[in-house]
Amino acid sequence: MIYTVTFNPSLDYIVTVNDFMTGVVNRTSREIIFPGGKGINVSMVLKNLGQESTALGFVAGFTGDEIARLLEEKGITTDF
Predict the structure, then answer these.
(1) Is the distance from CB of 40 to CB of 69 less than 8 angstroms?
(2) What percent of the chain is helix, strand and coil (3-state, nearest 5)?
């Protein structure tokens, strides 16, 4: 079993803007949220390669709940 540790887990937020222009209000056409942090990223790559791992670290509040939920959704074992 491989264990990864993320001391600063995060939610990575990626937005898409069609026809971005300066000086005007730009609206997003798509938003994606990913769990992030070095150890979590390694656990996701390992999962994609078919290798099981457990993501360790510290989480709290809404952000922590969302990180744990997204990782569980991807089938990654956690122990925060």
Answers:
(1) no
(2) 30, 40, 30
